[in-house]
Design goal:
The complex is a heterodimer of chains A (476) and B (285).
Chain A (H helix, E strand, L loop, with lengths): L5 H6 L10 H4 L12 H8 L9 H5 L6 H9 L3 H9 L5 H7 L6 H4 L11 H14 L14 E5 L3 H12 L3 E5 L8 H4 L8 H13 L3 E3 L10 H5 L6 E4 L5 E2 L12 E3 H10 L19 E4 L3 H12 L5 E5 L10 H9 L3 E4 L1 E8 L5 E14 L5 E14 L2 E4 L3 E2 L2 H5 L26 E3 L2 H4 L4 H26 L1
Helix pairs in contact in A: 3-5, 3-9, 5-6, 5-9, 6-9, 7-9, 10-19, 14-15, 15-16
Chain B lengths: L1 E10 L2 E7 L1 H6 L5 E5 L7 E4 L2 E3 L4 E7 L3 H7 L6 E2 L1 E6 L10 E7 L2 H14 L3 E8 L8 H7 L2 E6 L6 E2 L2 H11 L4 E5 L2 H11 L6 E4 L15 E4 L2 E4 H4 L2 E3 L5 H8 L3 H10 L16
Parallel strand pairs in B: 9-10, 9-13, 10-11, 11-12, 13-14
Antiparallel strand pairs in B: 1-2, 1-7, 2-6, 3-4, 3-8, 5-6, 14-17, 15-16
Classes of the chains: A alpha/beta (476), B alpha/beta (285).
The structure holds flavin-adenine dinucleotide (2 copies) and FE2/S2 (inorganic) cluster.
């Protein structure tokens, strides 16, 4: 590390992430951010003040030793930095790209007060990509325990759990309902934000380490959780099935052709590649069409930016609160706006209208204002009586959140759930009310984040490992 | 990958496949379906499990070539592989001792009703099958149904076999003259809608096996939503069977045409010998 004084380091401007120009990137699905060069990474790392009590680490949901990895980046020791991250985060290439850093590590950075936090996410991404491009080594397998664990769902929770369990010497099979692996990382988050090759590389690594993957395996329908434990002989089960049931608005016209849940729209495009020309999965033609997206989370931004890439014009986001309440990552909002997405806030759809063939033609938006604070501290939107805007639209995408999918839960009645239909699981261990069954990720928290799901998967892996070892000790 | 153990043409454009799927065969219950994908760029399509043989570890699919995916599927032969096969999906049909049950099948829907006819018969019901097709050469599953039903009433549009007319004509006679306790219908949407109208005046509980456009088939997308009694339901989770007297068939019909133009273009790419969408068999429209 260079010997910059504290003042010099504070004076330095943050290194911006190089990105492809908006008018170029909005015509394809390739990644928007180019990533740091080694020089950029070192320069950015050199801004770190190396606080005695690093608040960034406290801000990280999985407690990555950020201070140490940033120091190593500054010293040009990128592979060593990768090892430091890997101790706490099994998917840094993903998290560096999609974590809401502004509310986590970067939000907690002391430089954030000056509006210049260290770009920890960009550095994490750089380090992870660097290590991956050099062809990271596969860890030597631990001694086999002879125990078998079924991991249900191949999203970040399941992947992280499987990785740690195989590392501990257990035999792991991941069961995935869809024909592709990766969960939301595969079917939800688009290629231009998270290249599928990164997710595929992660899964490939797990395969090399001995994890078995079974696709088209809808647990609850083909095998139940009980079948896994009894008939199939697994010693423990981890449920990482996510919260995949889309919510609808419950307003007139919601069944018109051209009205999609964000999950359907993104699944058709990401999983089924409806944009590719070769795909046999259709999508309503978006080219030159007016598109509106309801909601303002990451999912809404992804849907809107996908619609832009499919030629939608104009593409509008309609959000019922004010810009301050937008839940999406800052970067996504900035990217969306740069790509031409129009943000309309303080409006809520009240009715969708269509033609005689049942095709969507318009939406009526009610103007809103912010009222009293809700229980969650956010000011509640309330309608401004009599104030409406009518907008012509051809495609409407509903991105107002998801709920747990009842499919597996119905088949597992002895699993305790909350009134929100999420699975009750211990925060530290993921243990559910059902013996031998652990759960983590969105199925427990409701729609959250990749890092939270990953963290839950890893905590559960530790608990499962312990469970299996004490189980053996007790039996012998 | 699932191996096709047997493939044979039943009637023009309709093929039967027996597919190796031991777990699905063990778990299957009448009314459930699988999601199938035949090529790496392929669409996910739902197909009813027409029969399951747990001993042989196989399930039976009966497929009518109506567009690109079903045409590609029907080009497969014994020994070929089906790329992706997931299931069993959907809520099983309600099977109880109702009394006299009429199962109404139109076109390929006849195969859809078959497993329910078997289950209903085993549950001690008197089961009458009313099945329809364009002509004798298109009539499906008549012998299979005859083996498990108390009566089979075939109907053909051209009168070449059985009753000359629609399945709803035969059904109307049955509900008017006998004490029918339940009706189960599967087939073209227009047929199911007509069945609902035929039984409505008699208050006969009537169930239709709906066929909306699906993607995942697991409750993840909501594309399969249907309106039942004014409430949206996901057909892949809560269906495909619903109370026919409450289903908004007009909406289903419209939504199933969402991609009509695109689908026609894809069909054309397959060339002139490819399947042409068949005019609704045995429908009352
Ligand atoms: C469009 C979109 C954008 C997002 N953007 C971000 C972002 O930028 N940053 C961020 O941190 N978070 C983001 N999120 C949220 C994040 O993706 C989720 O919180 C995270 O993926 C949850 O991980 P999980 O492993 O719990 O579940 P999932 O990723 O949902 O994976 C669950 C898997 O289980 C499978 N499954 C379900 N039921 C069964 C069954 N019965 N049998 C077998 N398999 C089953 C599913 O098919 C799925 O593959 C986004 C979410 C969406 C939808
Ligand atoms: C629960 C259920 C059970 C079914 N069982 C059978 C069966 O046993 N045998 C059989 O031959 N057919 C069955 N179908 C219908 C079958 O899924 C469609 O015929 C098939 O998807 C058409 O695809 P295609 O590419 O060949 O035709 P396309 O040209 O793409 O479409 C022709 C028509 O089929 C419907 N369709 C298209 N894509 C889908 C899709 N992804 N999901 C559902 N419908 C679609 C639309 O109405 C469309 O207009 C079933 C459908 C459902 C929902
Ligand atoms: S097919 Fe996607 S929810 Fe039913």
């Amino acid at each position: 590390m260079s010997d910059l004084s504290r003042r010099e380091r504070m004076k330095r401007a943050p290194v911006a992430m190089p990105e492809r120009a908006p008018d170029v990137r909005r015509t394809d699905f390739e990644e928007v951010n180019d990533g740091y060069t080694p020089e950029m990474a070192v320069a950015e790392a050199e801004r770190c003040l190396f606080c005695a009590r690093p608040t960034c680490v406290t801000g990280c949901p999985v407690g990555v030793d950020i201070l140490e990895f940033v120091r190593l980046v500054g010293a040009g020791e990128f592979l060593e930095a990768a090892d430091v991250i890997a101790a706490d985060n099994s998917m840094p290439a993903v998290c560096g790209r999609v974590c809401p850093q502004e509310t986590q590590c970067e939000g907690a950075c002391v430089l954030a007060k000056k509006g210049k936090p260290i770009h920890i996410g960009h550095l994490e991404r750089f380090v992870a990509d660097h290590a991956r491009n050099l062809g990271s080594t596969v860890p030597t397998p631990a001694a086999r325990t002879g125990k078998r664990v079924a991991v249900v769902g191949s999203g970040p929770a399941g992947i992280a759990c499987a990785g740690d369990l195989v590392g501990a010497g257990h035999e792991v099979t991941v069961f995935e309902a869809l024909h592709e692996l990766g969960g939301v990382l595969a079917y939800g988050i688009p290629e231009f934000r998270l290249p599928k090759a990164i997710v595929a590389a992660e899964i490939d690594r797990l395969r090399k380490r001995g994890v078995e993957f079974e696709t088209n395996a809808v647990i609850g329908m083909v095998d139940t959780v009980d079948d896994l434990l009894t008939v199939e002989g697994f010693d423990a089960v981890f449920l990482g099935v996510g919260a995949g049931l889309p919510r609808f608005l419950d307003i007139p016209g919601e069944n018109l052709i051209g009205v999609y849940s964000a999950s359907e729209f993104l699944t058709r495009v990401n999983l089924m590649r409806a944009y590719s020309g070769e795909s046999d999965t259709p999508l309503i033609d978006v080219q030159g069409k007016s598109v509106v997206v309801f909601g303002a989370g990451n999912t809404a931004m992804d849907a809107a930016r996908t619609a832009v890439r499919l030629g939608g014009a104009p593409v509008r986001i309609a959000y019922r609160r004010s810009p301050d309440e937008i839940p999406a990552r800052n970067e996504e909002v900035a990217h969306a706006e740069a790509e031409g997405v129009v943000l309309t806030t303080l409006v809520a759809p009240t009715e969708l209208t269509g033609d005689e063939d049942g095709r969507l033609t318009g939406v009526r938006l009610q103007r809103m204002r912010l009222g009293e604070s809700d229980t969650d501290g956010r000011r509640r939107p309330e309608p401004k009586p009599g104030e409406f805007i009518d907008v012509e639209v051809d495609v409407a995408i509903i991105a107002i959140g998801n709920m747990p999918n009842p499919l597996l839960l119905r088949a597992t009645p002895d699993l305790d759930r909350t009134e929100r239909e999420t699975v009750v699981a211990d925060v530290d261990t993921g243990l559910t009310s059902k013996p031998g069954v652990f759960a983590g990720g969105d199925i427990v928290t409701g729609g959250a984040t990749v890092i939270m799901a990953m963290g839950a998967g890893r905590r559960a892996a530790r608990a499962i490992d312990e469970f299996l070892r004490t189980e053996t000790a007790r039996r012998s | 990958m699932s191996t096709i153990l047997e493939a044979r043409v039943l009637v023009p454009d309709v093929k039967l496949f027996r597919v190796h799927a031991p777990k699905i065969a063990r778990k299957h219950r009448a009314g459930q379906f699988v999601i199938v994908r035949v090529s790496p760029d392929g669409e996910r399509i739902p197909l009813t499990i027409a029969a399951a043989d747990p001993e042989a570890g196989s399930i039976t699919l009966v497929v009518q070539a109506v567009g690109k995916t079903t045409t590609l599927l029907n080009a497969l032969e014994t020994g070929d592989e089906i790329l992706d096969l997931a299931g069993p999906l959907g809520t099983p049909s309600e099977v109880a001792r109702f009394g006299m049950v009429v199962v109404v099948g139109g076109g390929v829907g006849t195969a859809v009703t078959y497993p329910s006819a078997v289950a209903l018969s085993q549950a001690g019901n008197t089961v009458i099958a009313v099945i329809g097709a364009r002509s004798r050469t298109h009539l499906l599953f008549e012998t299979e149904l005859a083996a498990v039903c108390d009566e089979v009433h075939p109907c053909t549009d051209d009168g070449s076999f059985g009753r000359h007319g629609f399945v709803t004509d035969a059904l109307a006679d049955l509900v008017a003259t006998r004490k029918v306790d339940r009706v189960l219908a599967a087939g073209p949407i227009a047929m199911m809608a007509a069945v609902a109208e035929t039984t409505r005046p008699y208050d006969v509980p009537t169930v239709a096996s709906l066929n909306p456009i699906m993607v995942d088939g697991t409750g993840m997308c909501g594309g399969c939503r249907v309106s039942v009694g004014g409430v949206n339901r996901f057909a892949c989770l809560d269906g495909p069977d619903f109370d026919a007297h409450l289903v908004d068939f007009h909406l289903l019909e419209q939504r199933n045409r969402a991609y009509a133009g695109w689908e026609a273009a894809r069909r054309d790419e397959l060339g002139p010998c490819a399947a042409v969408p068949v005019v609704v068999d045995g429908a009352a429209s």
